[in-house]
Amino acid sequence: MPSRMGFDNERYIQEQTAEILERVKRFDNKLYLEFGGKLLFDFHAARVLPGYDPNVKMRLIRELKDKADILLCIYAGDIERKKIRADFGITYDADALKLIDDLRGWGIDVRGVVITRFDGQPAATLFKNKLERRNIEVFTHRFTKGYPTDVESIVSDEGYGANTYIETKKPLVIVTGPGPGSGKLATCLSQLYHEYRRGVKAGYAKFETFPIWNIPLKHPVNVAYEAATADIRDFNLIDPFHLEVYGKMSVNYNRDVEVFPVVKRILGKITGGDSFYQSPTDMGVNRAGFSIVDDGVTREASKQEILRRYFRYRCEYAMGFADRETVQRVELFMKDFVIRPEDRAVVKPAWEAARQGQALDKGNEGIFCGAAIELKDGTIITGNNSALMHASSSLVLHAIKHLADIPAKIKLLPDTITNSVRNLKTDILNERTVSLDLEETLIALSISATTNPAAQLAIEKLTELRNCEVHMTHIPTPGDEAGLRRLGVNLTSEPHFSTKNLFMP
After folding, report:
1. Which of the four, 91, 122, 215, 395, has the lowest number of CB atoms within 10 Å?
2. Which CATH number describes the domain made up of 345-493?
3. Distance of CA 346 to the CA centre of its chain
4. At 133, is the secondary structure helix, strand, or coil?
5. 348-357 burial, b for 16+ CB within 10 Å, e for fewer?
6. For residue 1, what pLDDT is reported?
7. pLDDT score for 236
8. Is 301 in contact with 48 (CB distance < 8 Å)?
9. What does the DSSP 8-state code read for residue 386?
């Protein structure tokens, strides 16, 4: 269905900026701001808060860029084990490089990269060399002696004092990094230690989006965050420190609550008694809840996000990336809100498309895949797999033909082009499969557009698929997934494989 707005970006930027600048003034005009969540392309927030700009944080930073230095943290262990960012399908070290490029694209330079818990890991060393040879300054911080319990060792020359001090010139230092556990907090506290040794009474705060502290614990927006982090076992809870000190309930999450007593003691040791804050909620700078303009819209959107996470984790379980407990956690959230898989509008049409394909014997090698997309006006379009192309390829072609008002009988891809691609795959590249995945189909479509006006008209409609909902009855192949990701659709799929082959290049 056509979407309604639930979030006011301009109000959010105004209030969040004012809160950040107030913190800067509070702490001797020097604030280390830990950025939680994604700095750019925060599509989770955009999905649960309709109207939220996925790049609103960057817009905010751009307004503050004359007052801000940026440090990018990455955990050496994540580099070594090639940890993958799920939404882009790239490793964390590649994401760090991409983030630097993205920041530069917004006219913002990175002060330096901090490799945390560095211990000479070969992959981390190679990453360091790569950055330095591109004139990006790199700092390495080793595991902090005594962490997390021995505050005397942590706040000493052998603890934080052993880390290199990173000189910054601007009053606000934004500390960010790919994913949780990147070492952002440790970097902030290490810098704070060095600042106080230099006589600068700097401060610390945390830029947060989720969970939203001033909406109910079991609000779907907050539960959707739990679903998004089910694989790392994050969970929301009432901040007990805030409740005890102020008598007010606020929502936080387990890692911040668990680490707060340690952080408070460390801050107290660094400052000589003043820990700044009485609760994890106090540490946060989060005005997102004040920018929700339609609670009903955000509730429904968040329930849909829980469904998306359910499908995603089921697929990851089938592929061996997730455990059964992760799936079960999200299933419990669905039961709490009485959500069923078919409550996602594109699920049943995709099932029906697969059944129709089987009835017509239209599949490929005995496997019958169906796919469905919900367009911006609520129209649902379906597609099937065949010996010619994958279900996602068929789906996208049907969708853009519909948007361009091209009659069904007009072919976008002539046989000369499809046969040429198939011959290339089999005769030259020695591939076993000839059916075209989405990436191959889009390339073929672009070639066709040079001589076919209908194909050109259809291509121009591809941008209208962005943010549309898609469901597939089978796990997409790498070529399908990459193509759908670039089109910007919100994809879910069933935990079934689209081929009997174990290896998918």
Report:
1. 122
2. 3.40.140.40
3. 22
4. coil
5. ebbbebbeeb
6. 45
7. 96
8. yes
9. -
Residue ranges of the chain whose pLDDT lies below 50: 1-2
321 DSSP β-pair partners: none
Minimal CA–CA distance to 457: which of 406, 407, 414? Answer: 406
Token readout for 126 is 């190679």
Instruction: Judge whether 488 and 465 are in contact, CB under 8 Å.
Output: yes
Closest CA to 303 of 488, 476, 50: 50
pLDDT, tens digit, 9 for 90 and up, residues 364-402: 888 899 999 999 999 999 999 998 899 999 999 999 999
Cβ atoms < 10 Å from Cβ of 342: 11
CB atoms within 10 A of CB 48: 30
Contact assessment for residue 405 and residue 420, using Cβ atoms and an 8 Å cutoff: no
Helices (H), ranges, 290-390 = 295-319, 324-336, 347-359
Amino acid at 240: P
Q: Which residue has the tokens 């672009």?
A: 446
State the greatest distance between any 2 C-alpha atoms of the chain, in Å, as a whole number.
Answer: 78
Which residues fall within 8 angstroms of residue 453, CB to CB, at 6 or more apart? none
Q: Which of 185, 187, 179 is nearest to 112 (CA)?
A: 187
* Pairwise CA distance, residues 98 & 87, whole Å: 13
Question: Residue 257 carries which side chain, given as an amino acid letter?
Answer: V
Q: What is the C-alpha separation between 430 and 443, in angstroms, rounded?
A: 19
Residue 267 neighbours by CB under 8 Å, 6+ apart: 189, 192, 204, 274, 275, 276, 277
pTM of the model: 0.90
Beta carbons within 8 Å of 306's beta carbon, 6+ residues apart: 220, 223, 224, 227, 330, 333, 334, 337, 339
Q: Tokens representing 189?
A: 């506290």
Look at residue 422 in the predicted model and tell me its pLDDT: 83
* Burial bucket for residue 503 (CB in 10 Å: 0-12, 13-18, 19+): exposed
CA 484/CA 488 separation, integer angstroms: 6
- Quote the tokens at residue 486: 């670039």
Q: What is the pLDDT of residue 439?
A: 93
Residues 6+ apart with CB under 8 A from 13: 56, 59, 60, 63
Domain ranges of the chain: 9-207, 345-493
Q: Phi/psi of residue 497, each to 5°?
A: -90, 140
Residues 6+ apart with CB under 8 A from 34: 175, 176, 184, 185, 188, 204, 205, 206, 207
Q: 394: which 2 tokens? A: 């068929």
The CA–CA distances, whole Å, from 123 to 78, 86, 110, 119, 127 equal 10, 20, 22, 11, 6
pLDDT, tens digit, 9 for 90 and up, residues 282-338? 999 999 999 999 999 999 999 999 999 999 999 999 999 889 999 999 999 999 999
pLDDT confidence of residue 88: 67
> pLDDT value at position 12?
96
